Amino acid sequence: MAAIRRKTDSISQILEQILFGGSSISMNVSTLSRGIDPEKRLFRTLALNNIILFKYPNFNSAADDDANPIFDEGEGLAIDRPVETGLYVPHTQEFPEAGGVAIYLRSTNNENLLEEQFGLSDSSSENASHDLRILSLIDRIPSLDAFLLKTCFEAEKINVDPRYWTVKSEEDSQIRHLIRARTEPIVRKAVGGSVGGGSSLERFLDAIWNPALEEAGLFVSAFGIERTEADSIFTAWKGITFYEYQLRRIAPRVRVIQTWLKSKDCSPVDIKMHKPYETQLVMHIERVGKLLDATMLDIRSIMMEYDTSFTAFVNGNPGPFRNYLRKSQSLYWLLGYCVSALTNVVHLDGRCMRNNPSRKLYFDATQKLVRQFDVALDRRREQKGML
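and the corresponding structure tokens:
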């Protein structure tokens, strides 16, 4: 069985993630805009349709490696949205790997940078205001998954050419079915006494997709939560269920990678030629394995909390599920990061191991892949304006 050689390249690790990290964390607006009439493109500002959108983690940098990345003990949220949105503007469209400028939507000088690069400001024009709203909506989602983007824009009644986020009808139906299966028992029990007087169970379930409906407010009120929080809670609830669906699809491949990192097959076939660097590589592999395990542990904790609170609610104790709903937004963002990171790892592994069932690599390819895994799973990735 032959091992696969891969040449290392000199582009930065962050840029590598932007260009090759997969659809959860990267969206090449420039490529998607080709063939779409200018008036139907995602942005009204021409230059914005030549960017690559990307997501990157920005967890609490003050916390140590063993701290919970979302919550500080007794403090609640450490950071509201620990995944940020960036705009990568290549110097040349033909060769985006040659470098460019990165603008982060939540950086302190983002307004100045957006105006300088694209002429965008709240007061500049109606088109600019429209584009800023589009960017704001994208920044409200932990990842760039097509289903989440599509449902977000549909809820806001913003028409976007479907070619920007293609979701297969079968996949869309499966996700919506799973979301309904997850929510219906809760809705049925929570508002059982409220159904009637013009409302029906179906309208309460419709409110999951349209939080503007009165039933959305009635549902959260049943848990003693302010009606104004219905939108964020329902968005998070849908998002958590979507990521659960996504995890089911990639979990088998994640387990293959976990096993490989801990096996002899992970050792490069030409390791004898790189003995001075063997210890360093082994330590790096162990670090990445621990990051992967920690990410899976976070996911399991969130899923377990949902199952535990759901069981308590069905048995007549609504307290745990009320608490779950109240912090669902932060759980949604953490789960979004974790599943997106795993999706990224699976994507990178698939590119590297294509046509290589033996999963045996040479030293350079192993080192590069482990480095890519590390960047994908790193919660405190360094920002860089010039890539």
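(Above: one complete record from the training split.) DSSP finds 13 helices and six strands in the chain.
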